[in-house]
Specification:
Helix content is about 40%, strand content about 20%. The protein is α/β, with parallel strands linked by helices. It folds into three domains: about 100 residues, Ribosome hibernation promotion factor-like (Double Stranded RNA Binding Domain), CATH 3.30.160; about 45 residues, no CATH class; about 325 residues, Alpha-Beta Horseshoe (pyruvate-formate lyase- activating enzyme). The protein has a nine-stranded mixed beta sheet with strand order 14-15-13-12-11-10-9-6-16, sandwiched between helices. Bound molecules: iron/sulfur cluster. The site of iron/sulfur cluster (SF4) has 11 residues, from loops. Iron/sulfur cluster binds next to loops. It comes from Massiliimalia timonensis.
Amino acid sequence: MTIICNQHKFQYEVECVCKMFFPCTRFGHEYDSTDFDRDDILITRQKQGNTHTYLLVIFKWNGKLYRAHKVVENQRAQKQHCEEQLCTALYEVLTKATGLQVQWGIMTGVRPAKYMTYLMKRGKSMPQIRREFRDRYLVSDQKIDLVERTAKNQFEIIGSSRENSYSLYISIPFCPSRCNYCSFVSSSIAGAKARNLIQPYVEHLCRELAYIAEQAKALGLRLESIYIGGGTPTTFSAEQLKQLTDAVREYFLCDTVREYTIEAGRADTITEEKLQVILRSGATRISINPQTFHDEVLRGIGRKHTAQQVIDCYRLAKKLGFTDINMDLIAGLPGDTLESFQRTIDTAIGLDPTNITVHALSVKRSSSLYTVNGLDESLKQAQTVKMVDYAYRALTKQGYEPYYMYRQKNTLQNLENVGYCKQGYEGLYNIFIMEELHTILAAGAGGVSKLIRPGCDKVQRIFNFKYPFEYLKDFDEILKRKDAISEFYGQIL
Ligand code: SF4
């Protein structure tokens, strides 16, 4: 599909709205073009008259023509207002053409809960905020309810982060095999090449942690939460997990840590011995991720375990004494139906974990589900919207509250991922990172440290190399980059 932008610079915003209706579609861009004589084009135009500015959208699609326009008085034609009006016209056109009612309206590129918290802190009343979401951004009442609940549930936690707080993220980019929807940089250890990297990786990771910890101590930073994620951290053997968690305990000042999560992840990697190591490491929270309780769907996405194995792992973890367990589920997986997804949600609720996180499937170009023609046909038909709605209704009815949320590109209708929990079991790290409340120092391949000055929107990032082999090969460079931490805090503390 070709997007033509004539006399305006809102190409990014226009593409974001288009992606909600056409996820995974490739868009071509043309500027100030008059070549309209073809199908599958979207023409957007800003035209300034003597007293008014006109924002026009014409969409030629499947042999039909759709159009809408907005008129703004020149005195009010500031950049943001024109951008919003153009997106509103575009939204009207795409809704008419596709028949889809996108629940997030034109709210793209904004973290809804963060924006609502911002408005709450500025003293706006809830009715005023709800009006702004509905009238300005065209967000549905149901999504406004979700954002309101989320923002209220995280409000107190947001206030508990201090000036010198930080969290630690440790990346384990290895998995037993690759799921076919995966877009993370995670190496499957099915082959010996990746398997042989694991031990050197553990050793280098421990060295990087020592280097980070030294700086954090010297700067007087206060460690609030630790998150070991991936990939699948339990791809490590019990000995390797012990080596890593011992290093964390030895190098970091952990007295101030309020939460310590280790993603156990996939049931095909979890053993009693590894759970014991995690328990003894002082971790307070783990994740055991079913994604779905439908065996056929699991097979279809390339997970090498059954739903029963997940249930067995969960029961084992409970028996060993884990009290705070998260389960990740995905709505919109190929082969899943609304009924089987509902059964998945109901099964998860029946197991009674403290946290259930519901993701809407995001298909990125790097995943094998992506095809050059856009989404696979079965995905197009997925009733993801209804699934996500069902999850919200069923979980909140059973006492789970939404407490953090985020949206990813290439998700049907830009649907959200939502963390639900029982009261008092909010995953702090998830809120800290999503709301960008304080610095996250990241170790390991693919890790991205975010240096954050409280109250300031600008985030300074330090990137580690993505793949384990690069991480090992250029390890000295990784350490060198970490010197930016001291430089950053040298200016503000
Ligand atoms: S377990 Fe997660 S990180 Fe690993 S391949 Fe599957 S989706 Fe990707």
